[in-house]
Amino acid sequence: MPSNPVKLFSGSATRTLADKIAKSYGKELGDINLSRFSDGEIQPSFDESIRGCDVFLVQSTCQPNDNLFELLMMIDAAKRASAHYINVIIPYFGYARQDRKDKPRVAIGAKLVANLLTAAGAHRVMTMDLHAAQIQAFFDIPVDHLDAAVIFVPYIKSLGLENLTIASPDMGGSYRARLFAKFFNAEVVICDKRRKRANEIESMSIIGDVTGQDIVLIDDICDTAGTLSKAAALIMEKGAKSVRAVCTHAVLSGNAYETIENSALTEIIVTDTIPVKKESSKIKILSTADLFAKAITNVNEHASISELFKI
């Protein structure tokens, strides 16, 4: 049995998910007060003792600036309250798309966030489906990188699609698509897109045959839904029977909800790593709570995390 008490706390970004995680784990969320001054300055304070405890802080860094800084302040408060071990659960890791210098004179935001979390006092980070898996190497502390495929694959199987083909909405996602395809012994097609700038597509073409197939597009993030919508329309034009999308993180900014509603997608399957703001008949939400709860148990009991990747 673990020698240190375990306490779970939530930031303001993903309170509903944190409640589900705590319930699945078998504990209540701890009391934390996230107050703000009139100018927006954040002041977190723990309303119970955490001295000597193994603390788990749950906060996605969607709409990243305030939520990220709130998380950093929570970490600092836990450190100064003499927590024994500070585990940071970031279901959605914001700034992960800025993982390299893809043009001159730009920041590497993902590395900066890793540095900030470590400097604040985090001992371990747990996250899900990073935009680029190599971001784990930006940290000098342990990173548990959970895979949402263990949630998505059973759901896709439950659909009973007869002519299943897995698709990637861009060249960069082909590796992720192939990982999904191996669970179904399915073929993979790729949408080759060219961008004018971020969130704006210039052109797209399909590599592979989609005629008569039930297509499932695989991606880690759905932001404006422009890529998925354009890919779905092109796939249907090429003779596909149906097209769905699987995306771990439902960022859904701008006109994303309207874009999805007006698209050729039968449905888009997402997780609750980011709260979905609007209900839609085309958006299916699968919960990550049980998976994170199991990961907390395994971390606390020094058990293998890789056991959670088995499907």
TrEMBL record:
Cofactor binding, note field: Binds 2 Mg(2+) ions per subunit.
Top-rank lineage group of the source organism: Bacteria
Positions of D-ribose 5-phosphate binding: R195, D219, D223, T224, A225, G226, T227
Tagged with keyword Kinase: yes
A GO cellular component entry from the record: ribose phosphate diphosphokinase complex
Signal peptide: none
Residues at which Mg(2+) binds: H131, D170
Reactions listed under catalytic activity: D-ribose 5-phosphate + ATP = 5-phospho-alpha-D-ribose 1-diphosphate + AMP + H(+)
Protein residues bound to ATP: D39, G40, E41, R97, Q98
InterPro entries, per the entry: PRib_PP_synth_CS, Pribosyltran_N, PRTase-like, PRTase_dom, Rib-P_diPkinase, Rib-P_diPkinase_bac
EC nos: 2.7.6.1
Keywords: ATP-binding, Cytoplasm, Kinase, Magnesium, Metal-binding, Nucleotide biosynthesis, Nucleotide-binding, Transferase
Cofactor: Mg(2+)
Residues annotated as the enzyme's active site: K193
Predominant subcellular localization, coarse grouping: cytoplasm
One of the protein's GO biological processes: ribonucleoside monophosphate biosynthetic process
Domain Ribose-phosphate pyrophosphokinase N-terminal: 6-121
Keyword Cytoplasm applies: yes
Pathway listed: Metabolic intermediate biosynthesis; 5-phospho-alpha-D-ribose 1-diphosphate biosynthesis; 5-phospho-alpha-D-ribose 1-diphosphate from D-ribose 5-phosphate (route I): step 1/1
Subcellular location: Cytoplasm
NCBIfam families: PRK01259.1, ribP_PPkin
Family: Belongs to the ribose-phosphate pyrophosphokinase family. Class I subfamily.
Function: Involved in the biosynthesis of the central metabolite phospho-alpha-D-ribosyl-1-pyrophosphate (PRPP) via the transfer of pyrophosphoryl group from ATP to 1-hydroxyl of ribose-5-phosphate (Rib-5-P).
Subunit structure and binding partners: Homohexamer.
UniProt-listed HAMAP family: RibP_PPkinase_B (MF_00583_B)
Protein name: Ribose-phosphate pyrophosphokinase
Organism: Pedobacter aquae
Upper taxonomic lineage: Bacteria, Pseudomonadati, Bacteroidota, Sphingobacteriia, Sphingobacteriales
Annotated gene: prs
